[in-house]
Description:
The chain is α+β, with helices and mostly antiparallel strands. Among the domains are: 1-23 and 132-434, no CATH class; 33-111, no CATH class; 518-632, no CATH class; 874-936, Serine Threonine Protein Phosphatase 5, Tetratricopeptide repeat (Alpha Horseshoe). 51% of the residues lie in helices and 12% in strands. The strands form 6 sheets. Strands 2, 13, 14, 15, 19, 20 and 24 form a 7-stranded mixed sheet that branches. Helix 26 (754-766) packs antiparallel against helix 27 (770-783) and helix 34 (891-903) packs antiparallel against helix 35. It starts with a strand and ends with a helix.
Amino acid sequence: xxxFFRWAQRPLILLLVxxxxxxxxxxxxxxxxxxxxxxxxxxxxxxxLTPLAAxxxxxxxxxxxxxxxxxxxxFISCVDHIRHTLSAKGDVIFESRGPKLRKGSFTASQQVAxxxxxxxxxxxxxxxxxxxxxxxxxxxxxxxxKTFEQRLHQLPDAQSSQLVADMAPLGxxxxxxxxxxxxHLARAYLLSRSGLSWDxxxxxxxxxxxxxxxxxxxxxxxxxxxxxxxxxxPKEQTTPEGxxxxxxxxxxxxxxxxxxxxHYAHEDALELEHLMESPRLGGIPxxxxxxxxxEKATRAAIQSAIETxxxxxxxxxxxxxxxxxxxxxxxPVQGEDKGFIVAYDSTAKELATTGIPMEDIxxxxxxxxxxxxxxxxxxxxxxxxxxxxxxxxNRRTMDMAAKSLPPRNVQVFGxxxxxxxxLSLEGPDYGxxxxxxxxxxxxxxxxxxxxxxxxxxxxxxxxxYVTQAVRNGTDKKQVPxxxxxxxxxxxxxxxxxxxxxxxxxxxxxxxxTRRQLEPDADEALRQFHEAIEQGRIVPTDDRNAFALLPRLxxxxxxxxxxxxxxxxxxxxxxxxxxxxxxxxxxxxxxxxRSDFLRGSQYFExxxxxxxxxxxxxxxxxxxxxxxxxxxxxxxxxxTLLERAVGLDPQRAxxxxxxxxxxxxxxxxxxxxxxxxxxxxxxxxxxxxxHNLALAYTEKGDYENAIQTYRLAMKLAPHTAYVAYxxxxxxxxxxxxxxxxxxxxxxxxxxxxxxxxxxxLGTLRAAAGHSTEAEKYYRQALKSDPTLLAARHDLAIxxxxxxxxxxxxxxxWNDNLARDPKHLPSLLGLAGTLAQSNxxxxxxxxxxxxxxxxxxxxxxxxxxxxxxxxxxxxxKALAHLEQALKVQPDNPAILEKTxxxxxxxxxxxxARAEYQRALDLSADGAARKRIRAALKKTG
Length: 938
């Protein structure tokens, strides 16, 4: 049997070391300014088109600008330590030498003590500050139990005395105002500089309380807690040679059907687990290995396990292993190709939000590999240089919190499964079903790499064997590449001990065993796991998992309790991820307020277990912002969505939410900027481009709208709703042939698309082809019986035939049985009843419309006509008078009112209304008609 490719968008098999994930990419920068107060001021940041609110606590970097409208803004310049107040209608750009005034004036300037801001990242990466928050909190429990004075006295005497002296003035300021954010910020700066990271983090939490929009302070407090936690890891029982800790992930099937399934990725992970447990590789204990296979390998589960299984447990003499077998993809984000690992619940359309960025993996090497001895790295991925290659930088730690640990270099060894321009292979030929690289890697570790018969396998043996074996075993289609080195004295495999038989591999899943517990603990865990499996995970659910946590805390050791609570946190984050995945599907999966409310509940509950998680905060703010949009609370929505952007500015969905809020307020220019920001961060996400096209359409920029839809169709050719909406635009522009082409293209993608079928019906009806139109309407209803628009349009079509009016009325009544407030059906039914001289029934329907929309002048005018025909002019007059309150200068209402006055023999009133109508009317025919009626009044 032949082998086949693990395609370029996919095979990512990583054996990586773990540490927590930190912001990767550009180094931290020194802020140039700190906003203290603002009224109607906005910030424009480099790389962000959307103007964002300038709020207290906002930090500015080089190239950022502030503009004021009708109010002022006060900020501290961190360059010269001057507090400035910028006038209304002002504009200032921040440069390395200080703020440069471009418009307006500084109405006040005053020297201050300092800015007290450390170097910070321009853009926070929330995904790198998630599960680690809960881990740090657990590690520092003993630390937080001590008093500040106890921690202070652990410093050298001179340092302690200097710190006390420096903080004395700040203590006085806080006694006068305990919530003073500047005083707390200054204390955080001094404490962090002295190595008291935990205390500095607590001060920054006070800053966040005072300045809730200060995303940098929230993120910085998490980083400081992680720094403090490094010296307080729980100590594993270990031998002098250390232990090995491993996380093995294998994903062969994916939630998103657009992601091609693999055959053997999960088998690679399971077989490697089997090999690692064997005596030949040291008999790694089951408790030291966690495997996540297929649906268990969600983004949240993988990241949680990295934090809790690897970073939380590995010590300075230990070896750490992370293995991921899955797809890998490169995606252009803001003009730069970036690599992503595909998790089980990732979506192909928006990997930047749902995948695991390779930048996060790189950050493991740059920032977190200080607490362990060696890293074992193996990568099996197509075009490894483009997707999976990680640059290894062995370097001494410079972290303040790690000063108590001896500086040292982490040993790193690994192999890339293919070169930058090569595909990776998998197939049944490789040990009954494996990736080629993975198979020969395991084969080499199992003994074949000992070609000189030393009885052991060292790094050089493994590298040489795997490189040659993969090259030969793939007919030179795939050649591995070595990364890093480990001293050859370190034995990877001892052949004097039993290994495994790869030829006899059966793929049997091995499950880790749990220790024996007391019966009550066992029952509590059973109930806890059952609640999670059944989705009873938020505190408001009946018999929810949260309710069992206090009992588990009382009966389980601290570390085991932490592991169990992490299971619940991951389940909550997974559930919240599903809400975001439906959002990313755009119009293909419509959502309402309840969806986002539930999403917020998931993230809020998860935050109870990881209260300092920046990642959870950002997603919670997003969901709450979308709820606010549904409630038409646009100011509240903007505040929440901008907080989401501040905490995670590289994710597209919050910008998209800001665009929707602006679009609903007819602020088309702002909407366009926000949607462009979203599209630049998720270039293959058609929903952002669709919304951008909508904004262009509403602004009247039809050419840009069409080009944007065309781009979306090119990037996401299998998305039916994009073609459908372009068809709507063409129809709006009276370009019927192009509209029909787009509707048919949507049906090629999705043959049962009810909206496209209905749209074709409207085109056929407008062209006078009633039979074809009816066929399309009925096909649409067959595809989606809940589509009220199709039933309404069919009713309009049938109402044009006097013999089928009752059938049309039945269709409208069917719609109204489904939704009594469906306005088009109410209007259609009322109008048809009126035309059929069924005045009483028509009046009843119009009264329903007015009850729903009291200010609907056109409905009151139509109802007035019904009452006139029914011989009830007084009722007609009452509705016309209400209509005039809404539209007092509407000549059509005035003309109708005059006619009713005549019926009531109020000639003078009729003459006055006709004259007003004549004065206001610009239509020639209407003016002629009104003059004739005016003459008849004498």
